[in-house]
Amino acid sequence: MEKVHEGITHAPGALPIIGHLLPLLRDPLHFLNTLPSYGDLVQIRLGQQTAVVVCSPELVQQVLLQDRTYDKGGPIIERVGNALGDGIASCPHSAHRRLRRSLQPAFSRTCLRDYAAIMTEQIDTLTTSWSDGRTVDVSAQMYALASRTIARTLFTAEAARPAVDTVAACLPDIFRGIYQQAVLPPLLRRLPLPSNLRYERARNRAWAAVSKTISLYRQDGKNHGDMLSMLLNTHDDAGGALSDAEIHAQIMTLLVAGIDTTAVALTWAVHLLCQHPDVQERLRTETAQVLGTRTATWDDLPRLDLAGRVITEALRLYPPGWIFTRTTTTGARLADAMIPPETTLIYSPYLMHHDERFNPRPSSFDPDRWLPEQEHVRGAFIPFGGGARKCIGDNYAMTLATLALSTIVAQWRLSSGDHQLPHIEPRVTLTPHGVQVRVECLQRVPD
Ligand code: HEM
Question: 3-class DSSP state for residue 70?
């Protein structure tokens, strides 16, 4: 195998001009999984640009922990910045600490407990809208649940509802657009292709809706007790308030980072329970003991053990955020390799979770691998990333997913005739389509 630099191997199969574009667009998951066999650091080509894929848990940890050297950057981050503004997820290291500190209080345990009440209410609304024997489109239902819940946590004001609906409707085109724009060469990105136009339109509509909501909040001047009110009243260490542009970018980022990821995780978990009725029954035994048939609340969480492990295993098999990039700000040594400044590095939770050296029987769905006595390779399970840029909403997502999944299983028997893997669309998230599930009521629905 050709060595590009000492310690970095060149992935085979690059075509002239387009490089590895075809496998990255057609079957990126399979392509990624082939890379560890070439080495711990493997160079791939996206058109004329190159990127180094980091294939060992130890090296991924080094990249994630040294966030000054391996800063946010690379094609996906550029597109995210373009779509959302320079929010916390895409800003460089130099701006990150200030933005992270301004958001962190909104994710404290006390706040999470308050959000759990909104979650329970929204889960209740969802599950009481189902009827016995109906087939539900799980992807759509979980998307509706996550978008309503997260949007309600961000803006509780009645006047913000239309904006919430607009943003939720635009997000699928934004997600699809960000991934396509990231892998397309710059020339194709600028052409008026239908996909490019759809993306631009969706981005502009969402952008305008969030701007309008911020103006509404500024005008009424009230504290609505939600995340937007908190951001409007935040002051940084130097006593400066966040600008409207910064608040705008934070809100867009939270919507984009939180909704699809959580919806996708829940969709996969429901799909997996349909494919594994034995696990579904075990989970029902747990929920019967803890909940009976009522909707789960914050206080139930410590006893919803298996539900948490099912979600964790779904995140391992199908990590919603499957590919992320970093850029070196300076020359850096990684294992035996000298990485030049401004090199794009890729880390992939999907690749890591499916490497059998670090996750035995990687394709098996086995929630019990997460029992406390089981051992794991450090850094081999990274659905929420790591280091200073680790997901700020990890506990939020786990809380919503655990409450939702256990309530659904407590109240409904889930089955799908289809044993095929749903069609996976690798957008910014690993999105499953066509998860149709028949729901059978386990309790009398009030007339
Ligand atoms: C299952 C659901 C979720 C998954 C799998 C997930 C995954 C991730 C990952 C892997 C990162 C790190 C990205 C990187 O290294 O470049 C991240 C960052 C982030 N996530 Fe999540 N996320 C989820 C839910 C949420 C939720 C519910 C929110 C907020 C409501 C959220 C907000 C964020 C933010 C703001 C960042 C950027 C953090 C920073 O750079 O300081 N995420 N997420």
Answer: strand
Mean pLDDT for the stretch of residues 401-420: 91
Domains of the chain: 3-441 (1.10.630.10)
Residue 327 Cα distances to 43, 202, 339, 354, 434, angstroms: 14, 28, 10, 24, 36
Write the DSSP string, 223-262: --SSHHHHHHT-B-TTSPBPPHHHHHHHHHHHHHHHHHHH
Mean pLDDT throughout 213-218?
92
Whether 352 and 60 have beta carbons less than 8 Å apart is answered as: yes
Contact 153 CB / ligand 1 (< 6 Å): no
From 255, 261, 310, 323, give the residue whose CB has the most ligand 1 atoms within 8 Å, as the site to mutate: 261
Give the closest residue (by CA) to ligand 1 atom 20.
Answer: 391
In single-letter form, the type of residue at position 186 comes to P
Check whether 412 has a pLDDT greater than 50. Answer: yes
Over residues 122-170, the pLDDT tens digits come to 999 999 999 999 999 999 999 999 988 998 899 888 888 888 788 888 9
Question: What is the position in ligand 1's atom list of the atom closest to the CA of 146?
Answer: 27
CB 272 within 8 A of CB 313: yes
Residue type, 430: L
CA of 247 to the centre of ligand 1 (A): 17
